[in-house]
């Protein structure tokens, strides 16, 4: 009995020493080496691919933002600022509930099922809003024109991109609100459309933040 | 090009990339576990551990090494989280509560990476890099070590010796995982994954005001998270988060990392037992199931049945624009057929049948190709069962790789395949029967039941993904999924190592005209059939209540 206790203690000691040594290798040296290489070679990416406009940082090209008007009194969800291209809904995005000295973005999805009435309602409401907001004199959006990404929340709630279809659908509205011609805005969308990587990876997309920065420049020049 | 074609081409590119590295990487791993020489740095480490790497271990000694190392790992990670509030370099984050610390410690040591916490608001730099990421490495190395011990059991005769656990652990970590992880992490950073040790970033926004996000060693953790089939995200959104998985290329690259070790280990197995054809037969079984499940997943997700998706026009809820439906389907199958559990899209918002496929993938025992190491030993156990069934058909004592599958071997294999379903079904039933656990469900009806079934399927199979609407941060789920993870990881390992010991002690049976040729396609067919039928019979009633009911109603 005494013998087996000693053996167990010896074995656990070996386990602890193994863990500490491997922690040094994989938990200290490894991340520091990778950070060193990353900061040395790819400093911009390693620090979050921040974008500047008018001399100040306006976000990360990888992190989606909302383009809303300041909330009116007593309003829970602010209205979208229709002057700017709108991103995808982000009903799964949260705010932090612990360590509340910070106001962190809490990434996430809605996790609602395909047959959940709440999700069906969210989709229908979003579709109605997209149709209403984007129908301007001389251009009527039909519900069947609205692509799926415009009415569904992404996995992260931080999706930086929309489909080219959703961007094109917003062109007439953007042109009207900013006093630009439809052709100018169409050109803008075209220039910011990224195809599939190597022609087959992922889906075509438009980065909303980059698009809005370019739109702001264009509108300022007019 | 249509989205369906693009999805298929991405899948073909993935198959091509995996095929390209299969032989050299599999051979390399076989050399790693067979080499006599130790690297200088390894010798220092063995000195630090106080273990002689050349001492051969019997199966009980090997198992004791696994258990001691894992027990210390759980305790260390638990304490690290409990002490976070006073540790420097933790962004001032407070300590994690006891139930959640236990759950998370068990989760990462068992290679599950179930997360009942939100990464970005709970874990600081020290716990993420020196705690969680370390277990991403070593839990994967432990899995491979146990698989290699079983392979040695087949390869060796008239001996009780299965190798040295400490040597296998250290070699797997240093010679396989670390070099690959460094290269992969740098590739991920080049594409946009973040890698820094700064505090919370406060960044201006286009419309004014600011947003706050976490800095951190994300790319280094992401690389080993996929490579070690771990799956625990730095951020709550896991690989859907643009800082973890920024582009369509990184998405495909991460799927490649998930699959590369489990598939290549079949080559390692073939080389070590002296017949690469035996490795090909196991590979063919894994690949057949993987390809079939991916095709089914793409079919159901592109068909987008279900009221919300019919209204939206596509199953894009919980999926990112840059990946789309095709790449998300490939990821979902790869992550659940292995023990990974990382997600680039949220399974709870897949179609009813799509969610069912993710569950069934795990319920197969995660063997196609399965987790690092655990996939290979799981599939070899199924192979033992398959030769036994074939033996019953022709009335002959079954053999596999020149070893007799007798009563003792069959009892161990049977225990192995019974333990995980028992854990899944008992814990799920208990959660449904008790008054409070069902309150954690987000969705109601069949999908609500699926959330609970998914949780215990994921925990007991050491996957870690979730139908994440379920509020799992309660005492009940933290404790019970913790127990399911522990028992689901280590009890099967006991049976695997006991089987390895039993096989190694036998003398080989000569091959005769009556021997079942386990390197032929006929055997692969038999093995696929055995896997599907055994799993199907075990889980059909539970699946019928959840995903099948939901999928067939829409």
Automatic annotation (TrEMBL), chain B:
Molecular function per GO: P-type potassium transmembrane transporter activity; potassium ion binding
Parts of the chain that traverse the membrane: 61-79, 130-155, 176-197, 252-273, 280-299, 376-394, 415-434, 480-501, 522-544
Location of the protein in the cell: Cell membrane
Membrane association type: Multi-pass membrane protein
UniProt xrefs under InterPro entries: KdpA
One Pfam family of this chain: KdpA
GO CC terms of this entry: plasma membrane
Keywords: Cell membrane, Ion transport, Membrane, Potassium, Potassium transport, Transmembrane, Transmembrane helix, Transport
NCBIfam families: kdpA (TIGR00680)
Physiological role: Part of the high-affinity ATP-driven potassium transport (or Kdp) system, which catalyzes the hydrolysis of ATP coupled with the electrogenic transport of potassium into the cytoplasm. This subunit binds the extracellular potassium ions and delivers the ions to the membrane domain of KdpB through an intramembrane tunnel.
Assembly and binders: The system is composed of three essential subunits: KdpA, KdpB and KdpC.
Family (UniProt): Belongs to the KdpA family.
Protein name (database record): Potassium-transporting ATPase potassium-binding subunit
Naturally occurring in which organism (per UniProt): Streptomyces adustus
């Amino acid at each position: 009995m005494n013998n087996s206790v000693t053996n167990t203690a010896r074995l656990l000691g070996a386990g602890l020493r193994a863990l500490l040594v491997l922690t040094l290798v994989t938990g200290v040296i490894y991340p520091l080496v990778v950070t060193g290489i990353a900061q040395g070679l790819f400093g911009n990416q390693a620090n979050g691919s921040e974008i500047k406009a008018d001399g100040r940082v306006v976000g990360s090209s990888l992190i989606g933002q909302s383009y809303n008007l300041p909330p009116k009194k007593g309003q829970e969800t602010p209205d979208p600022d229709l002057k700017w291209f709108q991103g995808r809904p982000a009903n799964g995005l949260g705010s932090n509930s612990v360590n509340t000295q910070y106001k962190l973005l809490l990434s996430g999805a809605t996790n609602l099922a395909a047959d959940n009435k709440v999700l069906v309602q969210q989709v229908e409401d979003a579709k109605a809003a997209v149709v209403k907001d984007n129908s301007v004199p001389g251009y009527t959006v039909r519900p069947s024109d609205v692509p799926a990404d415009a009415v569904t929340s992404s996995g992260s709630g931080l999706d930086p991109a929309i489909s080219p279809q959703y961007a094109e659908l917003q062109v007439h509205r953007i042109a009207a609100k900013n006093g630009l011609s439809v052709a100018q805005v169409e050109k803008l969308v075209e220039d910011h459309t990224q195809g599939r990587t190597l022609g087959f990876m992922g889906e075509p997309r438009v980065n909303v933040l980059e698009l809005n920065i370019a739109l702001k420049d264009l509108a300022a020049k007019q | 090009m249509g989205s369906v074609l693009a999805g298929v081409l991405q899948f073909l590119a993935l198959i091509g990339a995996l095929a390209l590295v299969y032989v050299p990487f599999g051979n390399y791993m076989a050399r790693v576990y067979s080499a006599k020489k130790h690297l200088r740095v390894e010798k220092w480490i063995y000195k630090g551990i106080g273990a002689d790497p050349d001492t051969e271990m019997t199966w009980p000694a090997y198992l004791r090494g696994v258990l001691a190392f894992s027990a210390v790992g759980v305790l260390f990670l638990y304490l690290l989280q409990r002490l976070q509030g006073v540790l420097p370099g933790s962004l001032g984050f407070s300590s994690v509560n006891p139930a959640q610390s236990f759950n998370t410690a068990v989760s990462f040591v068992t290679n599950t990476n179930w997360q009942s916490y939100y990464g970005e608001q709970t874990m600081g730099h020290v716990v993420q890099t020196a705690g969680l990421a370390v277990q991403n490495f070593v839990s994967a190395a432990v899995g491979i070590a146990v698989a290699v011990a079983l392979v040695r059991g087949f390869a060796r005769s008239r001996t009780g010796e299965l190798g040295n656990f400490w040597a296998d652990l250290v070699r797997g970590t240093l010679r396989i995982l670390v070099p690959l992880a460094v290269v992969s992490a740098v590739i991920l950073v080049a594409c946009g994954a973040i890698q820094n040790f700064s505090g919370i970033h406060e960044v201006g926004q286009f419309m004014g005001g600011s947003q706050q996000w976490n800095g951190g060693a994300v790319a280094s953790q992401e690389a080993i998270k996929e490579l070690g089939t771990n799956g625990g995200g730095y951020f709550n959104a896991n690989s859907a988060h643009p800082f973890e998985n920024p582009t369509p290329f990184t998405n495909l690259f991460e799927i490649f990392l998930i699959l590369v070790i489990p598939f290549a280990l079949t080559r390692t197995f073939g080389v070590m037992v002296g017949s690469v054809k035996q490795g090909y037969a196991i590979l063919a079984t894994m690949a057949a199931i993987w390809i079939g499940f991916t095709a089914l997943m793409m079919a159901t997700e592109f068909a987008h049945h279900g009221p919300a998706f019919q209204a939206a026009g596509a199953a894009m809820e919980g999926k990112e624009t840059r990946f789309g439906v095709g790449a998300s389907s490939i990821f979902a199958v790869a992550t659940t057929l292995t023990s990974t559990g990382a997600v680039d899209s949220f399974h709870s918002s897949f179609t009813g049948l799509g969610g069912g496929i993710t569950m069934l993938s795990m319920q197969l025992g995660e063997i196609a190709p399965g987790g690092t190491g655990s996939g290979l030993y799981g599939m070899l156990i199924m192979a033992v069962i398959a030769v036994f069934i074939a033996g019953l058909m022709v009335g002959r004592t079954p053999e596999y790789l020149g070893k007799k599958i007798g009563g003792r071997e069959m009892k161990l294999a049977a225990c192995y395949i019974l333990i995980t379903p028992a854990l899944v079904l008992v814990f799920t039933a208990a959660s449904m029967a008790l008054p409070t656990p069902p309150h954690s469900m987000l969705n109601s009806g069949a999908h609500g039941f699926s959330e609970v079934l998914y949780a215990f399927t994921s925990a007991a199979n050491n996957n870690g993904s979730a139908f994440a609407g379920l509020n799992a941060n309660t005492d009940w789920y933290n404790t019970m999924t913790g127990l399911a993870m522990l028992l689901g990881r280590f009890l099967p390992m006991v049976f695997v190592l006991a089987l390895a010991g039993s096989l190694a002690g036998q003398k080989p049976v000569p091959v005769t005209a009556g021997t079942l040729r386990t390197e032929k396609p006929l055997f692969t067919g038999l093995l696929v059939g055995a896997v599907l039928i055994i799993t199907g019979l075990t889980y059909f009633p539970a699946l019928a209540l959840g995903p099948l009911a939901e999928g067939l109603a829409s």
